[in-house]
Amino acid sequence: MSLTVGLLPYGCQPPPRTQVVGGPPRREGLLVGLKSGAILKIFVDNPFPIPLIKHTSSVRCLDLSASRNKLAVVDENAKVLVYNLITKVRGVYSPPR
After folding, report:
1. What is the dihedral of CA 32, 33, 38, 44, to 10 degrees?
2. By the number of CB atoms within 10 A of the CB, which of 47, 48, 50, 81 ranks highest?
3. Greatest pairwise CA separation for the chain in angstroms
4. What pTM did the predictor assign?
5. Using CA atoms, how far apart are residues 13 and 9, in angstroms rounded to an integer?
6. Higher confidence at residue 15 or residue 67?
């Protein structure tokens, strides 16, 4: 699956981080991490985004586990956080130095 970003209206910027999470045909989804720290799940057949997590800083990278229960986020401070999407509990991991 490939994503194509078309022309955006003046003043609009594409979301900083997007991850395709797949799904059944015509029901595919995206994870979107915003500069505000909000992480949303968007399905192509639903006009309303689903808020997952409100992180404290801008999202640099994100990914979903194969079981879709855990969300890994790397923020602008190079902190790796893993959220359990069922309980909304997070674990903090520091990169090795």
Report:
1. 0
2. 81
3. 43
4. 0.72
5. 8
6. 67
Residue 15: the pLDDT is 53
The owner of tokens 């609009």 is 12
User: Which residue has 């959220």 as its token pair?
Assistant: 83
Taking the CA atoms of the chain, what radius of gyration do you get in angstroms? Answer: 14
The mean pLDDT value for 65-74 works out to 88
Query: What are the residues facing 21 on neighbouring strands?
Result: none
> What are 35's two structure tokens?
């500069």
Alpha carbon 36 to its chain's center: 12
Contact 38, 30 (CB under 8 A): no
Domains of the chain, with CATH numbers?
A: 17-93 (2.40.10.480)
